[in-house]
UniProtKB/TrEMBL annotation:
GO terms for molecular function: 3-oxoacyl-[acyl-carrier-protein] synthase activity. Pfam families: ACP_syn_III, ACP_syn_III_C. Residues 245-336 form the Beta-ketoacyl-[acyl-carrier-protein] synthase III C-terminal domain. This is 3-oxoacyl-ACP synthase. SUPFAM superfamilies: Thiolase-like. InterPro entries: ACP_syn_III_C, ACP_syn_III_N, Thiolase-like. It comes from the Bacteria. It comes from Actinoplanes utahensis. GO terms for biological process: fatty acid biosynthetic process; secondary metabolite biosynthetic process. Keywords: Acyltransferase, Transferase. Residues 110-180 form the Beta-ketoacyl-[acyl-carrier-protein] synthase III N-terminal domain.
Amino acid sequence: MIWNDIYVAATGSWLAPPVDVGTALADGRYDPDDAARADYLSVAVAEPGENVADMWSRAALTALGKSGFAAGDVGLLLCAATFGAGVDGWNSAAYVQRELGMPGGLAVEVRGGSNGGLVALELAASFLRRPDAGAAVITAGDLFPMPYFDRWRSERFLFGDGCAAAVLSRDGGFARLVATATTGDPELEGLHRGDTPIGPFDPDKRFPIDLRERAKAFQAGGMPKDEMIQRLSAGPRRVARQVLGEAGISVDDVTHVIVPHFGRTLTTLQCLYPLGLRDINRTAWDFARRTGHMGPADQWAALHDLYENGQLKAGERVLMLGVGAGFCWSAALLEIVDS
């Protein structure tokens, strides 16, 4: 989908303090083989008692404060998380709406797994086609505390605590949204479910969540490994080719490639190779290896870091790739118009 007049007016982030991976290796929390493959330096870890609703709010307030828009200008607020804000039966986006001071408008949660930040981008861009839309705010991220989730062992990569936000409008900004694309492959949904029973309440649920065991259970169900790998590569390839093709450019014309913070090995296999790339330094790797994977926040947090550190120049193109459970993939192509 080509967009002609949607802009990123501002971004913001809130990241938990970094914890050196060497500390977790020394006390046995982190497996040395996993560490060698992922090659992280640190991971963002929030203090006990932190919650995602306040993290969403901090990132969104930062972005809104830099955007030139007032809370009353915002017609849409989208809050994306992997797990949610911890209270069942509650629209946590309304909490953020109040914290921002929005007098009205629509505030909802987006559940797209780790792709929620870019799914929200497509939804917000569509909303902004309305003549009276004003601005839209996306805030995305999560936290992964014990005993609910073991950030060091639940997956082959590390999970970090953080949120990032963006304000979108049709009235200009530092980046123009050129094109977006999203696709999915529901044959892979079991990778994150495994043999876990589906139901409204399970008193026997086991914690911490173990995504590796769920993946093993899914693979035991019969899908050949080669087919699974092919499907995991086809999604990102499809969406990247679509946005680049619609824009009339190739990946060689892109200055910055922003991908999920999956660690060195998985980032290369699941994100770079499908795009025809080999060099992880084409990505925001120096930032990613210091935060860990922050669910749906990765792309907006990396873009914010690049902008704040003066690494985005007018005329450059940025390709953002999102990967979420389901499976779901999104790509967004930006053109920097103001450095």
